[in-house]
């Protein structure tokens, strides 16, 4: 009787494992949530097929890094530290994520970027119009 219970438990476990391991195709979309605060780290473009990234010139020397805060409510907040006293200026808009596209709308200006990389530590996007790559870190 004990052997039958162990065997039945083993078969149920294998069945559940088989069902839970499906081969769903998510079209390359990452499952990491996009919400969070990201510090502007690097910008660049692709030259001769290779990424060329430099430290973001938008970050003013001596100030904190500028940032992008993507909130659960789909609000997007861009933080910009500037001036001699590193004053913070925040600009608020909205964002929409559709698969691996990220559309930011600030005022009446809207930009759409490909999400090149999204991990717990990095968001890398490439503007679909200009080709500019922007790297943010958490």
Keywords:
mainly beta; Lipocalin; disordered N terminus; Lipocalin-like; signal; Lipocalin-like domain-containing protein; 138 residues; 1 helix
Largest sheet: 8 strands, antiparallel, barrel
Per CATH, what is the topology? Answer: Lipocalin
Quaternary structure of the protein: single chain
CATH class: Mainly Beta
How many helix segments?
1
Distance between the amino and carboxyl termini? 55 Å
Write down the domain tally: 1
Radius of gyration, rounded?
22 Å
Proportion in helices: 10-25%
Integer average pLDDT: 84
The proportion of strand residues reads over 45%
How many runs of DSSP E, i.e. beta strands?
9
Strand order of the largest sheet: 1-3-4-5-6-7-8-9
Order of helices and strands: HEEEEEEEEE
